Structures are given as C-alpha cells and as structure tokens.
Amino acid sequence: MSQNDMNNTNAAENTEAAKVNTAAAGDNLLDFDDDDPLGATAVSKKSLVIFFLIDTSGSMRGKKMGELNTVMEELIPEIRRVGEADTDVKIAVLTFSTGVKWMYKAPISVEEFQWSRLEANGVTSMGEAFSELSNRMSRNGFLNSPSLSFAPVIFLMTDGYPSDDYKKGLESLQTNSWYKFGLKAALGIGNEANDDMLAEFTGNKETVVHAYSGNQLAQMIKIVAVTASQIGSKSMTLSDENSNQELSEEDVYASKQKLLGQQIQELVGQDGKDDVSFDTGW
Amino acid sequence: MFKGFSHSERGASHDKKGTVCQDSSLFGVRERYAVAVVADGHGSKKHFRSDIGSKCAVEAGLETIDRFYEDAEAFEKNFPRNRKSILNNIGKQIISNWNTKITEHFKKNPVTDKEKEPFTADEFEAIPFESYYGTTLILAVMSPLFTFGLQIGDGSLVTVLADGRAVMPLGYEEDNPANITASMCNANAASMFDTFYFNGTRKVAAIYTSTDGLYTSFGNEYDFLDYHSIITSQMTDLESFKETVFRNMAKRTHYGTEDDISLSCVVNNEVLEENLAKINETVAKNKQRAQERKAKMLAKN
Questions:
Q1: How much is the ipTM here?
Q2: Which of A40-44, A85-89, B244-248 has the lowest mean pLDDT?
C-alpha cells in the first residue's frame, strides 16, 4: 500500500491551512462558474414554507375576495424581502369552498410565485382543508426537499363557520408533527367568523386577529404574514445561555409561537381600530 | 484499475463560530479493491472530541477492509457465500478498531478542565467516555467481483452504475429511521450497521460516500443523484476535476447547508472508460428531465 494512495483529510488538523486557502482564493472561490458542469445542480438554502389556507366560499364573494386578491398580490414582494438573506421562502396556497384546491402542485419559491386571482362560491369545507393539509404536510408530500426546513408557517383566513365536520379534520392535523411545531395564525374576516374556533386551530388566542373592513383586512394579512415569516425563518438558539442547558425543539417552538402572539398583538394595537363598520366597511 | 479522491470541507457555520470541522474522509486504492469512507462527528455538547472520533472512524474503517483482504483470494471466495456473516464481522471489527483508537487517544489525552467546564460534576460523570468521540461512519468497497457498503448514522452512499444511473442502495433517512440516530459510540453499535451487497454482474463505475451536509445542500433528491452522475462523467480527468468538486463543496456549505461536507469517491477506470458515452448520455438526459420537472412544478392547478 502506498501512502500516496491514501488521502486523509481531517479539517481539525487543517484548520489553519483551510483559512489560508479561503483567504487566498477570496471571493473567486465562491463565484458561480457557468462552465462548471456541477452548476446544473443548484445549491439549496434552508427553506421556510408558508401555507395559506383561504376560504373561497360564496360568502367571501365581492369586496372581501377582491380586497384579499389585491393584498396577496402586494404581499408577495414583501415576503421576498424577508427571505432574501439565508432562507428560501416558499409559498403554498390551499383554497377551500365546495372541496379544496391547491394553487400550485407544490410549494413554490417566493421568487417564482405568481398570485392567481381567486373567485368565491360554494360552501366552507374547512375540515376537508385541514385533512388535505395534514396529508401534504409530510416528508413524502410537500416537504420532501433534502435541504433543512424551518417549521412551516400556517395562516388560515375565513369569514364564516365551517359547513363540514372541521373537528375531524383538525384532529387529523393535530397529530401532524409539522403542524405541532409550525407557527399558526388565523384571520377572521367580518362578523360571522368565530374567533374561538380559530383559536382551536392556532392553539391560542394571541395569534388570532379579526378584520371588519377592507382596510383592516389588508393590514392584518400583511402584519400576520410578514411577522410570522420573520419569526419562522429566525434560527433560535437551541441552548439556554443562562442555564447552559440544551433546549428541546418543543422549547424553541413554544418561544417562537409566544413571540408571534406578542408581536402580532403589539402591531395590531399600533394600527388601531378602524372606525368603519363591517356593513359599510366592505 | 481504481482511482479516487476524498475531501472534507469545514462548514460555514463552523467558520463563523471558530469551531473545527467534525467530519473526516479517506479513500484507499489497492490492486484488487478500492474503499471510500467518511465520518461525521456529532459535534454537540457531550461529543466534544468528535473531530478525533471521526478521524479514528475513517482510519478504523479502511484498516479493517485491508485486514479482511490480507488473504485476498480466500476473502473473495468466501464473501459471496457468507456475505451476511462477513458483513456482520466487518462491522464488529470496525467498531473494535475504533474503540482501540479512541481508548488510546483518551489515555494519552485526559479530559481537561476546559472540556469539563460546560458540565456539572454529575452531568460529566454520567457521560461514557466513548460518547466524547461520537461519530457516524459510511464506508463503501468496490471490486470487480462485488460492491458492498456499511453505514451507521446519517449520511449517504451512492453507486453510479455503468449506464450512468446513480442509486442509493441504503436509502436515506426516511427509509432508515432507526439508523439516523445510530452512532459508533452506542453500546450495541456493531449491531446497528445498515449494509448492502451487489454481486459482480451489476457493473459499478463509481461509488461515493458523503456526510449529511452534502445531501442537505440540495433542493431535491433528483439533483443529489444527478450530481454523482456528473462527477463520474468527468472522472477521466480526475486531477483537474477534483478541484472543481472541492470548490463546489465550498459553495454548497457557504450558500446552503452551512454544515461540514465530506465526500469520498472511488472509480473503476475500466468500467468508466468502457461506458463513458452511455454515462454522458445519462447526464444529458438527467439535465433535460430536471428542466421538465421544474416546468411541471411551476404549472398552476
């Protein structure tokens, strides 16, 4: 056996050499080269999927849906700015009325995502939407990328009470680990939306907000989506500096969900209440 | 008949924190066989010597294979007939060699006060010394007669067949949930190896072992597999192309995973040269399929 046949690379021994190499190569080392055959396989950053669950039942028809479409078109560039540094933010939109429908076949990078204007009709199959989300929110479904993922953001928007057995769908969702560790928020639109039921979905009242007018709807969607994306893509330390103990995933999730509730309530408070009543507001 | 390379790239997150690379990689090219091996030291609090543990692991792996091949004719005759028990024995021998190496290191290098600092006395007492060195190991061997591999813990093992197709004979994480958390430092480590064996009728052009930092730098598994087919297609000019691979690994940890990345590869020159046209054809088809997949994904429902 020739020593030349062996190449033992342990960077523990070569740390200094590695530093020198990196410094000498400078930015050139990290430049992308069009002639590199390996350039055909892209580098993937850590990803965050934002799931929007949107009620498109008949009661959303008119100003509610018109406003929602406009806000969502405006929201996409704002979310792009959240993820531009270290995170690949992806968006998945599931609409529910009489049945459920995904806007795209899979979560799409926010850079390539284009909003399709939604139309409203039919009943409110929210339970079916919960079951569908639970089915797709898995390593064998929408979250199949080898790259590391933050726990997803799940944002529910509805203006009324479900017309199907939502509890059955919610029970299925509550067994899903991505749901358990995901950041959950909900927006009730108009007087008919039931905040208690929305709190069942999010797990607490602090991440449930309500909009009674078009202006509020735009504000709330932006506040919730942008805040949740910022917190969702934040790498929180897994060690508690005070006690020097390693924290569990559950601890990190609980901290993030609590922070989301606090920030949403703070921002909603700053925006104040809209004086326009529901009836005239739409 | 064989050639290869190995490389460990320190993770961008370790660069930022000023911590050492926990990965190690090694390859060995012999007359009748070639070995590619990587190890990923766990790196968390109680595994504070896992960079040493991973180095001991790749060395123990290669030395074990060399020892089994000491009587090459007998080994090549017996292995196909008793592959299950021999793979089992190889696993046991690797663990035994690793334990010898870390024990030797431990005796020469008692734990320092600085290493004990993060723990209370009770916490430290509860950690078995093997855990200080905790690591994964992925090892693959190719010969004209057979190809086989062993894996403990996460990471990937990819074989590129003579037609250029890349396959993962041991699957990955979700297929091996029990294996993800397995470690060389577990009390029953020798029984925790996942193994595979191909007989010589399945022509293999190249085999690769990599730590999980490589896999997690890809957006989908197709790209990960295609990456290995592309490298294989360029291996006729190993010396210049391996620098391209090392640069790509640096980009992958910098822009993607931020984890340490190790890749070890060995190639069968004869199979490669004989099938180069077919391998290049597969690489071109893979590129076309990737474009089709993307177009399909962007189509709205």
A1: 0.79
A2: A85-89
